[in-house]
Amino acid sequence: MYRPRRRQGASGDRERWSPSIWDSSEAWAACAKALREYDEDMIQDWKEEIDTLLVFAGLFSAVLTAFNIESYKWLQQQPSDTHTAILSQISSQLNSFTVNANFVNTTAPATTALTAPFKPSRFAVRLNTLWFSSLVCSLLSASLGLLVKQWLREYLAGSSSISRESIRIRQYRYDGLRRWRVPEIILCLPILLQLALLLFFIGLLDLLWTLHPVVAAVVTTIVAVSMLFAFITSLLPPLYPDCPYKSPQSWLICAFTQSVKRTAAALASHYHARLYQPAPLTDRERAHGASTPDPFASKLELPALVHSRVWEAVRAWLHRVSLARTYASWKEREKLETETGKTAAALDDATLAGADAMFMDDAFLHTVVRPCMRDIAPRAALRCVDSILLRRAPRVLNDMPYWDLAHSLDGGHGDTGTLTLMNLLLDVLHRLNASRDSDVVIEWEEEESAETKDDARRQVLMTMHRLVRAIPAPAKGQAALNGGGADARTRPLFRRMFEVLAGVLDAEVKRTTPERFVRERSFNLMRKLFARFQAVGPDCIAAFCAYSKQTRLENAPYSFFQACNMVIRASAVLARAASRTGSAAVPEPSTCNTLLSPSSAYSLESGHKRSFDRSFVSSTTLYSEPLQISAPSDEDDEGAEADDTDSADDYTAVRPALLGVLHDLECFLSMPVSRAADCRPTMAMLSECAQAVLALAVRDRLAVSRDLVQALSDMVGYASAADASVHEDTDDGDVGGGWDDVDAGIGNGRWGGREDHDAQMARQAVRWLRRMYGLRVRSGLGSPPASYDTR
Fold first, then answer.
1. For 691-715, b where at least 16 C-beta lie within 10 A, e where not — what string?
2. 221 pLDDT band (50/70/90 cuts)?
């Protein structure tokens, strides 16, 4: 081997060998080790098979010998037969005596042969031929087995070295092993035993049919069924690749069929090539001016057309036969079968689902199954996840898994398996969403339509809606510090859920023909999750903004209003997190639609900001679900984790989009059509929106304009008056139109409990907003105009 050497340095160091890419001694050693392990496994398998055959051959030979001891006597004359013949002769002579007066005479001849020449019967010859042939085959298989074990021992002799010389010797022996047909000899050993067993059964049935027909019929039935089973199990593996009944005799059948297939493929390839070579013109045809016939002329004649169609079918059949693939072993055949796309994907998901069913361990599911699932096709991964979910779900109804409602973390204890299942669904959803509009598709998935992929995403989202109930919400404040490992696992999971769902929502918004079910389900799931985890990122807020724009273009008022609420709520949380870092910059006045003067009593520079927060919380707890506006105490500041204290850059990045959503919301609330019965938001939605706008104004007062506050307060007043009028009509009362009437209705308990709470929260939030922005709160504010019917 060539090894470059370093030049001698100026200090007089001697030349030293340096490692390089040409130094392959370790590679040769690894190759020798791998080949030795392969040979040891191969020889060990052969030896175990031979040992089993030797045991069977010994037992079978012992049983067969007992039969042969009795059967070989039928091939020679026995002494008992001679004695029987003599007694028969004496008896015949005594029976032929005649006694007269002075005379005794016999009619039997005086000298006759005592016995006739012995000749064994055909039955005895046939029976002994079968049984002794069976015994010979059995002993021959045992003898060959001993010889083969000696050959194999010599094959492994001296293979402990890992040098290149040992590799050459090993390859020399391996080539000799193949050339002298040692594997085929080992293959013949069980066949000899099967042949010996068959010969024994044939002789046994021949014997029984000469003794008693009933016994013979019963034994013949049993032997026939056994032989039929052996024949069928030997014939099925060559026909079906996944059949596990592989045996030496079935491989002989398979080898025969492979040889026939190779011959047919060679002939088909030869004739298929000749069909596309036009016959050369003879000299006589050239002399008469003949040329190559027109290939399109035959299509004008019906007989020629039928003839050409037949030849096209023949050529297609010859082409298929010429491409027939042959194989030299079971493993090669199985490899060819499992390398196809759909079969490989089905085997992958069945393997992972079966492994999880075998162990049912959460750690194994997280550390083994989940990484492996990332390497298989998305549809196969979805099938695997479905199998795992159906097996692990506490309840299954109509082939759909269901989970119970999760409790608190209880000091840091959580279900690791449930979190892993949600991560698996997120992995599948992310991959399905990435491949939805991607040009790079898996080969076997090219036939799948877009509807099929949308169905898969719908299935994942519906399962996530049911599974998210079993995941507890992360702890908050000081409880997060004491939560331990459970909170450390749930917080990244919720963050990842928002990221993946935001990607799905953003992709559906950008599509020309979005899948509405996937879009709405993703958005509703994020609204459901926001009640438990509010630290969403700017990408999620940007997706909410894009969704609100899309719903506004689609004239969907309820979806638009909910999207605006989510944008404001998430932005308020992000602004609050940015303010905790102490680096939240006050935006320029030019970036706001309608700004308050810096001399306002509740400006950001004013020292009344914290007192406003405390007074607001002391009066009532607004925005309790999903966001609780509380006084930023020192304990909360210390308990906030690093993932909640995002930098102010994130809020600055989403602030332009937030301003656009606020402007769209202001326009919507200001339009008369928004107060129609079919478009007007519910009191619960208005309460949520008012509290969200108030929470945002507390942190970024310049983002909320006076016009938005005025429009929101008018809408709250109108909705309150409209709802109050409905209740008054129910009670046969007069219709009230102002805030005082609404307050009276709330105080008298004429509304429902939930409606009372929503109306009270909305009105109180609007009052604080109007006080912040210097708008006068007067009696009758927000009463519906005379032109609108409150009914």
1. bbbbbbbbbbbbbbbbbbbbbbbbb
2. very high
Per-residue pLDDT of 84-109, as tens digits, reads: 666 776 776 667 666 665 655 555 55
Q: Are strands 395-397 and 400-402 parallel, antiparallel or unpaired?
A: antiparallel
Same domain, 202 and 92: yes
Which tokens is 783 given? 């009463």
pTM as predicted? 0.70
- Structure tokens, 398: 């109509």
Same domain, 325 and 471: no
- Specify if 700 maps to a domain: yes
Looking at the fold, whether 358 and 493 belong to one and the same domain comes out as: yes
Same-domain check for residues 220 and 254 = no
| Alpha-carbon separation of residue 6 from 11, 12, 18, 466 (angstroms) | 13, 12, 7, 68
Query: How many domains does one find in the chain?
Result: 4
pLDDT digits (tens, 9 = 90+) for 368-391: 999 999 888 888 899 999 999 999
Cβ-contact 453, 435 below 8 angstroms: yes
Which residue range(s) make up the domain with 67?
Answer: 50-236
Identify any residues that bridge with 97 across adjacent strands, giving them in sequence order. 106
pLDDT in tens, 234-243: 999 988 888 9
What local confidence, expressed as pLDDT, does residue 753 receive? 62
Q: Residue 377, SS3?
A: coil
Same domain for 311 and 202: no
> Do 350 and 206 fall within a single domain?
no
Q: Residues 260-312: pLDDT tens digits?
A: 887 887 777 777 666 655 555 556 555 655 555 555 444 445 555 555 677 67
Same domain, 382 and 241: no
Check whether residue 741 and residue 649 sit in a common domain. Answer: yes
